[in-house]
Design a protein that fits this description.
heterodimer, A: nine-stranded mixed β-sheet, globular, B: alpha+beta, Sulfite Reductase Hemoprotein, domain 2, 4 domains, five-stranded antiparallel β-sheet, 20 strands
Chain lengths: 191, 562
């Protein structure tokens, strides 16, 4: 019995498109007593947990392609010196209601200047995609019991949000002339 | 007041479309109830005991008459003819059908309102002084900042799944009427020595299971940095706030755990990077928003004594004394319309009353109304010369009970009659107490006192800061009430102390009676109840209340027929 699981998504969302994906997310099997030091990371395109990366950095860094995923209680700074090594960094959302991943993404993009793929994994559902995208995620592995094409609609919920964030560095008050009245008083009706 | 521009309209319209589709997916079972729950909560929709409850945001408690009439319309069309104004200056409707909620939101959008973030683990409606802009003791009008923070916090992408709910209050007057010390962030708009405007920044206040008063982490955050500094606080909290136990998840627990100084240091570290960034507020944007809160076109009127013409009318005099507040402009006054008539649940208003107060506001107060966190309504700008006619009309509709700040001006949550979180009922206790002490002469003799009732430890009825606080508790499946005294809100905020073992509902009026007797016997020179309670401490009150067996009183209200 392997002491880990590999989770693959046949398709993910990248940018605004549904695309095929050949990465696998490795999750340690806590029951098996597996430790980050002892597990053997299989060949191929694997996104390893932060703990495994930290324990096996020297060997994993030799691979042609490696990804890492951060649990929601990690800080972005845990991988600040390694960012260039990764083809993909993923952030885990253990539950829809755990919003730490948004701050991790913000810090990776804004503070640490990470520019490669940033993928949301875990309890990723249509209704949090918009916020995830705003905080800097550009790839999403939605829960596989739901239609990925339906999930795609979540990315376009709003067209002109108030705040600055990663996707839109200027707040509304700096990027638009505020205070105008709608051309028609039924603006947006029927959306 | 603030008016939506094309962007505000679009965001609210897009929100309705998003929410309408979420409801559709829930009804089609494409979303499980568990998945739908955080979505509907962020839209103010709770599942209560009997039906859904919808909480609608009244930003910083300010309402136009068109908005108030829309509440009346919602009460009639979608509810049972009434609504409940809350301690966070919002309104909630208790008998709502899920299928109708998107249409209610569409009706609200037509008058520039919504229910966004009125619940859930996100930044909630920002509250302030109900007399903002008109109070005689105001230093700076807090409403432009409240509106700017409202926009910034609406769908903030990073702070929509916080460890727990997050409440911000702003005060801009000498006397704090916004209860800032019991908020996650409590702001005071101040001037520094150079006369510049900024914020005294308090964090970590809150009630619930662990009541804590907020701590000041920065004496002066210049106004330009209010969004970026708030963002720094939010990011520290989002990353480090506890998520393993919902009773330890509020920011107050984090601040206490790491210490105020360390928390302030973490915020400063975060802020260093954000300072002068794009979210730094511009003078242009502040001026744009502030213009909506310009003073009304007041007439040049002499200040008069409104009693002069009606010297022998004691009822009018009582109302002037309790329900009319000073205004910064001569010849004007603010009027508090009491939603605390004995026999009516605190904060409830019927559709007819809502339409009526809208008419009053159109006629006497520039078409605007306020909701107070004590769950009353305010006409902020009434000519003194017209107070008598306002009083007569309000009185005819049961809205002129002269009890503002008195014993029967009770703050109460909806409690076990509606709320599925409650351990005990609140409304029948409020009713029994109001009935027992209905005599106005007695109430005026007792004077200023705040009696707050919560049906559970979540403390929606602010019991911790009541001069007398009553908390519903569950003991072996039956309802009991724990009593504390000495709590206070405002500038001298304090958390009340529990006097001893809890009481049955039927004992509560007598318990309050005994507390008042101790006060009357011991008060000196115009001392208020709170002064006496804080001077003497719990001991004499405790001793007297428990000295002899407490007779059970009569049931009142619906429970009478149970």
């Amino acid at each position: 019995m392997p002491n880990f699981q590999l989770q693959a998504h046949a398709q993910i969302i990248k940018g605004r498109d549904v695309v095929a994906d050949d990465w696998s997310v490795l999750r340690l099997d806590a029951e098996s007593g597996a430790t980050p030091e002892s597990i053997e990371v299989p060949e191929g395109k694997i996104i390893v947990p932060l703990a495994v990366w930290l324990a096996q950095r020297a060997t994993l860094a030799q691979r042609a392609a490696i990804g890492v995923w951060l649990p929601s209680d990690a800080l972005a700074t845990a991988i600040k010196d390694d960012l260039a090594q990764f083809a993909v960094v993923a952030v885990d959302f253990p539950r829809f209601s755990d919003g730490r991943g948004y701050s991790i993404a913000y810090n990776l993009r804004k503070r640490l200047g990470y520019t490669s793929e940033l993928r949301a994994i875990g309890d990723v559902l249509r209704d949090n995609l918009f916020s995830m995208q705003r905080c800097g995620f550009d790839a999403f592995a939605p829960r596989q019991d739901r239609s990925i094409h339906e999930a795609l609609k979540g990315l376009t919920a709003f067209s002109n949000p108030y705040q600055a964030s990663v996707d839109e560095p200027q707040p509304l008050f700096r990027r638009a002339a505020r205070g105008g009245q709608p051309e028609h008083n039924d603006i947006g009706a029927g959306i | 007041m603030y008016r939506y521009d094309q962007y505000d309209h679009l965001i609210v319209r897009e929100r309705i479309a998003q929410y309408r589709d979420q409801v559709r997916r829930r009804l089609a079972d494409e979303l499980t109830e568990e998945e739908f729950l955080p979505l509907r909560l962020q839209n103010g929709l709770y599942m209560q005991r009997h039906a859904y409850m919808l909480r609608i945001a009244v930003p910083y408690g300010l309402l136009s008459t068109a908005q108030m009439r829309t509440f009346a319309h919602i009460a009639r069309k979608y509810d049972r003819g009434y609504g409940h104004f809350t301690t966070r200056q919002n309104i909630q409707f208790n008998w709502i059908e899920l299928e109708q909620t998107p249409d209610i939101l569409a009706d609200l959008a037509a008058v520039e309102m919504h229910a966004i973030q009125t619940s859930g683990n996100c930044i909630r409606n920002i509250t302030t002084d109900e007399f903002a802009g008109v109070a005689a003791d105001e230093v700076i009008d807090p409403r432009p900042y409240a509106e700017i923070l409202r926009q910034w916090s609406t769908f903030h992408p990073e702070f929509i799944a916080l460890p727990r709910k997050f409440k911000i209050a702003i005060n801009g007057a000498v006397e704090d009427r916004a209860a800032i010390a019991i908020h996650d962030i409590g702001l005071t708009v101040v001037h520094n020595a150079a006369g510049e405007v900024g914020f005294k920044f308090m964090v970590g206040g809150g009630m619930g299971r662990t009541p804590i008063l907020g701590s000041v982490i920065n004496d002066f955050v210049p106004w330009q940095h209010v969004l970026t500094y708030t963002e720094a606080v939010m990011r520290v909290y989002n990353q480090f706030g506890r998520r393993d136990n919902k009773y330890k998840a509020r920011i107050k627990i984090l601040v206490k755990a790491v210490g105020v100084e360390e928390f302030a240091r973490l915020v400063d570290e975060e802020f260093a990077d954000l300072k002068d960034g794009p979210e730094t507020l511009t003078r242009e944007e502040l001026d744009r928003v502030a213009r909506y809160f310009n003073p009304k076109p007041y007439l040049a009127l002499p200040a008069i004594d409104p009693r002069a013409q009606h010297a022998d009318d004691k009822a009018f005099a009582n109302w002037l004394l309790r329900n009319v507040k000073p205004h910064k402009v001569p010849g004007y006054a603010s009027v508090v319309l009491s939603l605390k008539k004995t026999g009516v649940p605190p904060g409830d208003a019927t559709a007819e009353q809502m339409d009526f107060v809208a008419d009053l506001a159109d006629k006497y107060s520039f078409g605007e109304l306020r909701v107070t966190h004590e769950q009353n309504l305010v006409l902020a700008d009434v000519e003194q010369a017209k107070l008598f006619e306002v009083w007569q009309q309000a009185k005819a509709r049961g809205l002129a009970t002269p009890n503002i700040g008195l014993l029967t001006d009770i703050i109460a949550c909806p409690g076990g009659d509606f709320c599925s979180l409650a351990n005990a009922k609140s409304i029948p206790i409020a009713a029994a107490i109001a009935e027992r002490f209905d005599n106005l002469d007695f109430q005026h003799d007792i004077g200023d006192i705040e009696l707050n009732i919560s049906g559970c430890i979540n403390a929606c009825g602010h019991h911790h800061v009541g001069h007398i606080g009553i908390l519903g508790v569950d003991k072996d499946g039956s309802e009991w009430y724990q009593v504390s005294i000495g709590g206070a809100q405002g500038n001298a905020s304090a958390i009340g102390k529990i006097i001893g073992p809890s009481f049955s509902s039927l004992q509560m009026p007598e318990v309050v009676g005994r507390l008042l007797e101790v006060y009357v016997k011991n008060r000196v020179d115009g001392e208020r109840f709170i002064d006496t309670a804080q001077r003497l401490g719990v001991a004499p009150f405790k001793e007297y209340v428990y000295a002899t067996p407490i007779k059970a009183g009569q049931l009142v209200g619906e429970d009478e027929y149970a």
